[in-house]
Amino acid sequence: MNSEQKTTHPWSGDLAASRDLKRNEKAGFALILGWHEKWRVSQGLPSGREAAATFWKVKVRAKEREPWQLEQWAEAFRWFLKWLHHAKSDGRETRSLEERVRDAVDRAGARRGLALRTRQTYASWAGRFARWAGDETSTMEAGKARDWLAWLVSDQKVSFATQKQALNALAFFFRDVCGKAEVDLQVTMRRTPKRMPVVLSLAEVAAVLAKLPSKCRLAAELQYGAGLRLSELLNLRIKDVDVERRQVTVRGGKGDRDRVTVLPLAVAGQLGGWKEQLRRLHEADRAAGVPGVALPGALERKLPRAGERWEWAWLFPGDHLSVDPETGIRRRHHLHEETYSRALREAAATAGIGKRVKSHDLRHSFATHLLESGTDIRTLQELLGHADVKTTQIYTHVARNLSACGVASPLDRIGAVQRCGG
After folding, report:
1. How many other CB atoms sit within 10 Å of the CB of residue 261?
2. 397 assigned to active site
3. Is 229 a catalytic residue?
4. Is 360 an active-site residue?
5. Annotated catalytic residue: which of 229, 333, 334, 364?
6. pLDDT tens by residue, 286-312
7. 202-354 sits in which CATH class?
8. Which residues have C-beta within 8 Å of that of residue 266, sequence separation ≥ 6?
9. Fewer CB within 10 Å, N or C, the chain?
10. Catalytic residue at 363?
11. Is 194 a catalytic residue?
């Protein structure tokens, strides 16, 4: 098999067998409902009227549509909601195989105490495998899993890190969900060449920062100025930033390691006014009885009211309350990573930067610019939180005064000789 199979949704058979619809109507219904199902599962929403209404608002109405499309798609959702009502009344399963596998992996991960992001990653890979396998029996077969992993390596040509991630996800699925202690999933993994990181010049960084909205700009200045990963940036709390010592403490970074990095003077000077705004937001939430922010690890259980305290507040909070996926509590979360990443992409495009700019490129630029200014590799390793200095050494290949990129071309010497009359 050389491609991922289509998901067969529980409603697909009933739609195909419907005598009230024409063939072109069935095709149109399947198109919009399949799109809706994929979006709903990615958002972790239960199937129902509320999810359908949200999808209609944020996806269907997000751009101008032809009247006939809207009419047909509205009919599709009316058909689907009626089907959903009857299916639930009959006690039938309304989730697709992919969704059931994802839910099972997420629950097993929660029992094992895995971090939310790890559970989401494992669930996503296991769900993709289930969609590829096509049915419950095949999804339980280790041989099918090996075939799929081999397909990822040979046909999809995913990176070595991605290959390992998919392997670990399926190993967890078979061991902790299927209860199989001995499963051989080993395939020949292929290492992919290391790619050079995208590095922005100082002028390009300044141009991107200038085009960002105020909240995202301060966050981007801190990410670039302190060399933070995106998750490290968004998970910062008031207590993690020491203006007097000009330090940022990263807690539970990659590999669950803590570290200290530099707080830029330019950001330190803005934090006074920024914290005043955050204090007003914090007090408004307390006055409104909003539950405190989520706490890491077991602190939520040990210190149940600590999330209401000022020092635990997010440094970059979201504008709106949202439902905590871990607890189901409606509270204030930190700035959403997609909101921040999208703002960066739009700012780079507006600034006319001819590079594909992502949030992690600010971290790459931090490391490269420090090397170019004379920072030693070991110090940089500590600031970036790399476990192995070999990871840090990749920046020596893009820093202008440390690599072949900084060597002057002999063609330029000809011009210099001619100017000197030699």
Report:
1. 19
2. no
3. yes
4. yes
5. 229
6. 999 999 999 987 787 788 889 999 999
7. mainly alpha
8. 221, 225
9. C
10. yes
11. no
